[in-house]
What we know:
Layout: H1 8-19, E1 25-32, E2 42-52, E3 55-65, H2 77-88, E4 99-102, E5 109-112, H3 125-141, H4 146-149, H5 163-180, H6 184-187, H7 190-201, H8 203-212, E6 216-218, E7 227-229, E8 235-237, E9 244-246, H9 249-263, H10 270-285, H11 291-316, H12 319-344
Amino acid sequence: MTEWPFTIAELTAGLRRYFAESALKVKSVNEYPLQLVGRAGQVRGLRVEYGVGSETVFIDCVVKEPKGTSRAGLAGAGRREVGVYQSLATQLPMPTPALIAADPLGDWLVLEAVEADIAPDEWTAEDYRQGVGTLAALHERFWTLAEDLSAYKWLARPLTGDFEIHVYAAAQAIEKMILDDRPQPITSSMTVLGALGQMISQVEQVAAPLRAAPQTFLHGDFWPGNVALQADGEMVVMGWQSAGLGPGILDLVTFITASRWQRQELPVACEDLIALYHDEMRQRVDAPWSEEEWAAQWDYALIWRFVQEMFVWVTSTPPAAFEARAAQFEEIWLNPVLEAVERRLRPVFYI
């Protein structure tokens, strides 16, 4: 018998709220196979048989059991996702799955199942452009409202409240690379090690222009695997476990790098997507960056996302798994970041 993290009473109460039907009774719950690309802990399909009066019907749901916090000291990923669905979903400029029931601390969520009509690896150039437009609409809705959103303590704050946690984890990762003498694409080159050291020693120089940019609400993990693209073009956005506050360009970096990580060759040039977002934000909110300033913002955002995520990924990935991704890692992350470091930071760090 399948064990579920919720009680039948909790599920029933959630379904009664969802359907606004106080007489609803759950008759049975069963697991069904579910294929998901997501990276947020255990995700299972749930088929609920319920009755209202003499009628018996089914509803398909998704049960998520997040991994907890993504890093020691940070708010739980599940708590953030529950918070978005409970407090912010109605204010978002895109549809999301409906939250049916959830643990208050985010240990589990039951969401309506939303299937994608178009798989992530089947997105066209126009779909990617629409994804950029979806991000721009989200960022426009909450443009410069970080102070108002500060009431939601569970939101991630990568460049402020959570900053030291990310930097410390990255510094520890460099030490581990040197100690373990792996991975070779990094540790075999003093030039590469020196550049990565620069990123940590000058991280305030990286963060300062990003903090100075207008702040907004971030999805945090926006990519095709977290979007159920419908046949009519509607994008149902899910996977809000990394929701936070910061400059919108961080979401754009995530969208492009995560899309390439999954697909490598996109049907549209990354430069076109970057320029499209820039144009969208200039039209929507009169974003202040010149072309030169925008290029600098991109470099700083790319460096910061590497500090925030990729240092730890490199050291926590088993050697065989890293080797399978090594070429992608160098093409999508390492080489572009090294070029950005050369453009923006001073070579003053020595190993």
